[in-house]
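Recap from last week: sequence in, structure out.
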Amino acid sequence: MPELPEVQTIVDDLNAIGLIGRSIVQVEVFWPAAIATSPPAVFCRRIRGQTIESIGRRGKFVLFRLHSGPILAVHLRMTGRFQMAAKGGHPCRHVHVVLKIDDGRSLWFHDTRKFGRFYLLDHPQAVLGSLGPEPLAPHFTAELLAGRMARQRRQLKPLLLDQTFMAGLGNIYVDEALWAARLHPLRRSDTLSAGQIRALHGAIRRVLRQGLKHAGTTLGKGQSNFYSLGDARGGNDAHLKVFRRTGEACPRCRSPIVRIVVGQRSTHLCERCQT
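Predicted structure tokens:
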């Protein structure tokens, strides 16, 4: 599933291709379940004729602010991605929503697993209000993290994956941050010292910034992997320390990286560094 660096990479790419100020002249929905907030016919009618005023991100949602006020929020889930098609392009069977733009191009939503969802929101808080703080925001300090963790008695891995606790983190960057902070994923959140919380705070921000710097993480070559516009692959895979490195040497102590399952999620760590 695309995480904060991947979603932000997509947002940056969408902003770079000249969609701001363009109008949506036609909408086609080929997979009705992709529309989460209304029947597809209503969704198409409300979107048609709207001008895209801005494109941003909140957590793992791509947000299109439209001229008349509503926000189109798109959650990519596991395999959703956008493709920009020239006039006359023919979408493949994995393209489930098409937004035709007034300059002849079309924005395709491609999703092999069909888990991605579109939300047309007059009141964004109904969907976005439950999200936790943005980990790269200026106000996300170590003190803020400490205060939120003090109210929890949960294992670190499931807690950091919880989007109501912190928005944007997923399996890749949680494993990387816990390794960087030398914290075991099963450690209980209310047992961390002030120094360990500061280390975790810094590690979260570093691994996310690294992911942004390298335009996200693409693992493997299958259709289910992350791709941005133009089928661009993220380059952060080469910079991962533990995620999907089972059996390889820990970059810090040379002990083998191991894989365990925490909350039904694959989790990678060094048992020597992360006791």
